[in-house]
Design brief:
994 residues, alpha/beta, TIM Barrel, Aminopeptidase, 8-stranded parallel beta barrel, 6-stranded mixed β-sheet
Length: 994
């Protein structure tokens, strides 16, 4: 059945070729990044003419033809991105006012191509024609890359305009014979930042890309630099890593200021550190970027200093020094919980080994690595080094084309098993999408619904039409429409105003889409002063000794700015040191402050309100921060209490990355920090200030653990925690063990009792409890008068009244139709009619009827078009405590993407208790319907965070894709979707029933 469906979908795709662009995503906290197509890139190296051009030449036709050949090959091989090396050795493959033309481009550094040809502009234009992203690859610090026949440290071989020749004091002669910029010299870093700014200002690149070359080695001759600039550091290694961090952070901030849509990625050496040298490192024995290149690549991810990371894991699976599997899994964990996307760098150049015993014999090692990637939930794509590998090994291109075109991947995060369990109640027939009566006899332009402004180079126009009449866009007929007249057209945009006229019969729509510069909204300052609204802190800032905060304000570029408090004054560093055009703009000024030690016996010290002063020529200004800085002890005198049923906790003082844990009503915990709208608790997690009640005492409040008791019952086990009063616990589950951390409860001794499932330990006087629970239906905490209970829910045996026709007898299922009321969700192709909220409700009603016919008790969070908040939905789930919670959605993505390949079915869950459910739903849909596999994904959606029941969210399809929207609107296809979901639920309970 699955092969039949894939064939039918393929035929339909050939029949209905729709150029589309998705619209804005309105799903509950659903990010389009989670659903976007995998990144599939190839590195094109220009240094030493490795990939392009074959030899330096000023011949424009040769440069163009070679570029087109590479781009055509990338597209044919199923890739969607090219990473072009545009600054290989301190010279440029584009028109630059900072760097000379590259010798690898024309043969002589400083010599331009003929006829004013700009290679980078050509590459970008041709890449975008092929729907390929173009990332500009910069080698930041390398000035030369000598061959064995070239002289060492050859400054005379550089162009007379090369910055390294004009400023040799910025450089170091390394023992490999090459010249490098010294990362410790501020002027050298500023040059690199300015160089990146020049690229993104003048070119429509999709990304800026650094490779793995930072410091070339540990014996870099920068002793004088360290003596001059490294006085705050106890060793030169930390100084060097700090310099690289400064560059990375500066480039990232500058990109987000000028063109936030441009991605900044780095492809470091595959090993951050070996475990034998650093406990946090990988189980490897190779060169370590942290110590050899002074690149804290792990730290960049944790601090979100880049948009993506692509570690070069150029070794095979099973390699004892640096195993691909070990490293890919290590990086997967590093990126978990971070906004930084993980792409894997593959050593494609190693393929084609002639020894049959070699792991790199043929191209199968790449296939094995791609298969392994699909089991890692954080891996969002791959990049292959390099283009020449595809020339030398044509089978590599065939492999990738087949792999990506046939969606060969296994389900991310799932067991990838396909159940064909059938019952009389769930017999299925092959799905067909047949033409039905036209949904509308009139023209509707759904997206965009009004005139828009954008920085994008393309936009997606979509809607519905009368399928029997021709449809025209700017007098050109749109021939590619669905059976029912749904259409989508991906249109290019020129700078300025673009007018589009859509016409059918006597009805028409006119839309203007204005393409603007990303930096066009930045205006010069009219008055020269400190911006009062930018002074830090805006809210009370409370930290412990040794912690760092960045004091910041905005003032004119070129000003002298200081910040003063607690009797001290500190100079501030500007984010942008020089105006790009001589006009006066505002920039951020920063100073990183480290909180000092408290005096003996002190619990708190008020450091005062920071006062910011500015001198700018004849202008002077002074501004006060709204709040003060407070130093507190780790054993804090501040305590917070939870006033509501439960509150959310976060890993950082921001909610964007989702909830990490919850606290239950009346729990109390010490406060160890405060910033912005958030307060940090003794667990290290953060809560919203408004969600807790904060009290201050004269002495720290000590809460002792007085009792632990484990009480097993037939349907659940209860862990009883009693304290001397107050306290808090945080529970988590990894699929095998439930951990309860009592971070705010002190205990000098381990409380033990006779139960082999439970282990207790005390670290720094605080108790941690682990309970073995490999098969768990759910868990949650409840507050008691003497403490709290941890409830562990067991899977029940199948109800004795269950029959072949009523296999769900005895189970309670809660369905949650996403959105509703004033929240329409994603906008479909019929405009305000049949938006996502209507589709979700329709699917839920059909599924409710089906599940009830199978014997289940089914409840719904909403049964009509009514408003219901996410908090209300989760509270309803907590009240019902069902055997299964399923949130139903359809999806969409932003209007500036081409929607051609954006379709399919996906499942999301947060807690491991829901993984078996998520796997069962996806596998059943794939088996029955042959839908495109968008995977089982771990995501912290609000409605799926309930741990008291397996909770999952499904995305049934994309309402912004004309073909997909027609499928979602078709009653036959939706009936089969519901049948398949019901079967997946039945199979889930069959497998989990005791």
């Amino acid at each position: 059945m699955k092969k039949t469906m894939k064939l039918m979908v393929s035929v339909l795709l050939l029949t209905i070729t729709i150029l589309g662009q998705p619209m804005q995503n309105y799903a509950d906290e659903t990010s389009s990044d989670d659903l976007e197509e995998a990144f599939k890139g190839v590195w094109v190296a220009t240094v030493l003419n490795i990939d392009y051009p074959k030899a330096g030449t000023t011949d424009v036709d040769a440069l163009k033809s070679e570029a087109i050949e590479i781009l055509d090959r990338a597209k044919a091989n199923g890739l969607n991105a090219v990473i072009l090396q545009v600054r290989p050795t301190g010279d440029a493959f584009y028109k630059s006012t900072l760097f000379p033309w590259s010798k690898y481009l024309t043969g002589t550094q400083g010599t331009a191509p003929e006829n004013n040809f700009d290679p980078l502009a050509f590459w970008i234009e041709e890449a975008h024609k092929r729907n390929l992203e173009l990332h500009a690859w910069v080698n930041p610090f390398r000035v030369t890359k000598k061959t064995k026949n070239e002289p060492s440290h050859d400054y005379n071989g550089l162009s007379s305009t090369n910055p390294a020749r004009l400023h040799p004091e910025w450089t170091v002669k390394y023992n490999d014979g090459n010249i490098y910029y010294d990362p410790g010299i501020p002027a050298a870093r500023e040059l690199i930042v300015d160089g990146v700014a020049e690229i993104i200002t003048n070119y429509d690149v999709d990304g800026i890309h650094f490779d793995d070359y930072f410091y070339p080695g540990t014996d870099f001759d920068d002793t004088k630099t360290f003596e001059k600039y490294g006085t705050e550091f106890s060793n030169i290694g930390d100084f060097r890593r700090h310099n690289v961090d400064l560059l990375v952070e500066s480039v990232h901030r500058m990109i987000k200021l000028l063109k936030p849509e441009v991605d900044f990625g780095i492809s470091p050496f595959g090993i951050w550190a070996n475990k034998k040298d650093n406990a946090l490192g990988s189980d490897t024995r190779g060169l370590q970027s942290y110590y050899a290149h002074y690149a804290d690549t792990k730290g960049w991810v944790e601090k979100a200093m880049i948009d993506y990371i692509a570690p070069q894991i150029y070794w095979h699976i099973g390699y004892d020094i640096a195993d691909y599997e070990i490293l890919s899994k290590w990086w997967n964990e590093v990126c978990r919980g971070s906004s930084v996307k993980l792409y894997i760098g593959h050593g494609a150049y190693r393929t084609g080994n002639s020894d049959p015993k070699s792991a790199w014999y043929g191209v199968d090692e790449i296939r094995r690595q791609l298969d392994l990637n699909q089991t890692l939930d954080q891996v969002k794509g791959s990049i292959f080094y390099n283009n020449t590998a595809f020339v030398n090994q044509p089978r590599l291109g065939v492999l990738l084309k087949d792999y990506y075109a046939t969606d060969h991947s296994s389900t991310k995060g799932s067991t990838n098993t396909q159940s064909n369990t059938q019952s009389n109640a769930l017999n299925m027939t092959p799905i067909t999408i047949t033409p039905v009566a036209p949904v509308t006899n009139t023209l509707i332009l759904s997206r965009p619904s009004e005139d828009v402004k954008t920085t994008a180079s393309n936009y997606y126009l979509s809607g519905a039409s009368n399928a029997a009449l021709p449809l025209f866009l700017n007098d050109s007929e749109i021939k590619n429409r669905s059976f029912n007249g749904y259409f989508g057209v991906y249109v290019p945009l020129k700078d300025g105003v673009n007018t589009f006229v859509l016409e059918q019969g006597n009805k028409s729509y006119t839309r203007t889409i204005t393409k603007i510069s990303a930096s066009g909204s930045i205006s010069p300052m009219s008055t020269y002063q400190i911006s009062d609204s930018t002074t830090f802190p805006r809210e009370k800032e409370m930290r412990v000794a040794g912690e760092k905060v960045t004091l910041t304000c905005k003032a004119p570029i070129g000003a002298e700015v200081t910040v003063s408090f607690n009797g001290q004054s500190y100079p501030m560093v500007p984010k942008v040191a020089q105006s790009p055009d001589g006009k006066v703009y505002a920039t951020s000024y920063n100073y990183e402050y480290t909180f000092p030690e408290l005096g003996s016996g002190q619990h708190e010290q008020d450091l005062g309100v920071p006062v910011y002063t500015m001198k700018f020529g004849k202008y002077y200004d002074e501004a006060y921060a709204p709040e003060n800085l407070i130093l507190i002890s780790e054993n804090s005198i501040y305590t917070c209490e939870v006033p509501e049923a439960y509150i959310d906790l976060f890993k950082s003082p921001a909610s964007g990355n989702g909830v990490a844990a919850n606290l239950v009503k009346e729990m109390t915990e010490q406060v160890t920090g405060m910033t912005g709208k958030y307060v940090r608790l003794s667990s290290g997690l953060w809560a919203s200030k408004s969600a807790v009640t904060i009290s201050k005492f004269t002495e720290p409040q000590r809460v002792n653990l007085t009792k632990i008791d484990y009480q097993p019952t037939e349907f659940y086990d209860r862990l009883v925690i009693e304290t001397s009063g107050g306290g808090a616990g945080i529970a988590s589950y990894d699929g095998e063990v439930v951990s309860l951390k009592l971070s705010s409860i002190l205990n000098e001794n381990v409380l033990t009792f006779n139960n082999s499932l439970v282990q207790t330990s005390v670290v720094d006087g605080k108790t941690s409890i682990q309970i073995k629970a490999p098969h768990l239906k759910g868990y949650y905490l409840e507050k008691t008068n003497r403490g709290f209970n941890l409830i562990l829910l067991k899977y029940r045996a199948k109800n004795e009244s269950a029959t072949a026709n009523t296999p769900l007898s005895g189970y309670t299922i809660l369905l949650d139709p996403g959105h509703g009321g004033s929240d329409a969700g994603a906008r479909g192709l019929l405009g305000d009619d049949f938006t996502e909220k209507s589709l979700n409700l329709n699917t839920a009603i059909l599924l409710k009827a089906k599940l009830e016919s199978l014997g289940a008790v089914v409840k719904m969070t909403r049964e009509s078009d009514t408003d219901m908040s996410l908090k209300e939905r989760l509270a309803f789930s907590l009240k019902v405590k069902p055997d299964l919670f399923l949130s139903i959605h359809a999806d969409s993505v932003e209007d500036t993407r081409d929607l051609t390949d954006v379709f399919g079915f996906s499942v999301f869950y947060k807690d491991p208790v829901a993984k078996p459910l998520a796997d069962s739903l996806l596998n059943q849909i794939l088996f029955d319907l042959g839908r495109k596999d968008r995977g089982v994904n771990v995501k912290n959606f609000y409605v799926t965070r309930g741990t008291w029941a397996p909770s999952a969210l499904i995305e049934t399809g994309f309402v912004c894709n004309p073909m997909e929207y027609e499928w979602l609107m078709d009653s036959k296809s939706q009936s089969l979707l519901v049948e398949s979901l019901a079967r997946g639920i039945v199979n889930y309970f069959d497998r989990t029933a005791q």
